[in-house]
Amino acid sequence: MAYALEVRGVSLRFGGVRALTEVSFGVNDGELFSIIGPNGAGKTSIVNCISGRYRPTEGQLFYRGQDITALNPNARPRLGIGRTFQNLALFHHMSVLDNIMVGRHHLLKNNFITGSLYWLTGARREELEHRRKSRRSSISSTCSRCARPPRAPFPTVCANASNSPAPWRWSRG
């Protein structure tokens, strides 16, 4: 069975510093996969390789069977690869779902002109489809102290271990 994401023998060096050495793993469709380790272990480096921010010195990255090792970072979102940062709520007044939708805005086809005719140009339909895809394809980091949890059928995990009474608690939105 092919993996949804496969990392094969990825190494990353910055001059003489080895950030990653021959990292390999595979992630199946629907699987929740964690990368854990102490500071300096290379967690962010491997995520940066997957998202395209860094290009591995050695090894290959495959997404749904396609070699993405040399793929431009701007082309990866079209495949379904996204990256979030450790800031749990980019816009604190917005829900997690709305924050995810902001990250998907580049996929919208309506513009300033057609969007102003919201009910007539299909902008409303496009926004509803955008919202549906955001709900369906996302696992969100949130807790009641970080941001309003989304009202969605996908699981959420509290990633604010220092402020949460029950860190890493799973709940349904």
Q: Structural class from helices and strands?
A: alpha+beta
Described by the principal axes of the CA atoms, the overall outline is elongated
Rounded radius of gyration (Å): 18 Å
| Binned strand content | 15-25%
User: Termini separation (Å)?
Assistant: 31 Å
Low-confidence stretches: 139-173
The DSSP helix count reads 5
How many E strands? Answer: 7
Largest sheet: 4 strands, antiparallel
Count of distinct structural domains: 2
Order of helix and strand elements from N to C terminus: EEHEEHHHHEEE
Helix coverage percent of residues?
A: 10-25%
What is the topology, as strand order, of the major beta sheet? 2-1-3-4
Task: Give the helices and strands, then pairings.
Elements: E1 5-14, E2 17-27, H1 43-51, E3 58-63, E4 66-67, H2 76-79, H3 96-103, H4 112-116, H5 123-136, E5 140-141, E6 155-157, E7 170-172
Parallel strand pairs: 5-6
Antiparallel strand pairs: 1-2, 1-3, 3-4, 6-7
Structure, explained:
By secondary structure, the protein is α+β, with helices and mostly antiparallel strands. It folds into 2 domains: 5-79, P-loop containing nucleotide triphosphate hydrolases (Rossmann fold, 3-Layer(aba) Sandwich); 96-172, no CATH class. 23% of the residues lie in helices and 21% in strands. The protein has 5 helices and 7 strands; from the N terminus they run E-E-H-E-E-H-H-H-H-E-E-E. The strands form 2 sheets. Strands 2-1-3-4 form a 4-stranded antiparallel beta sheet, covered by helices on one side.
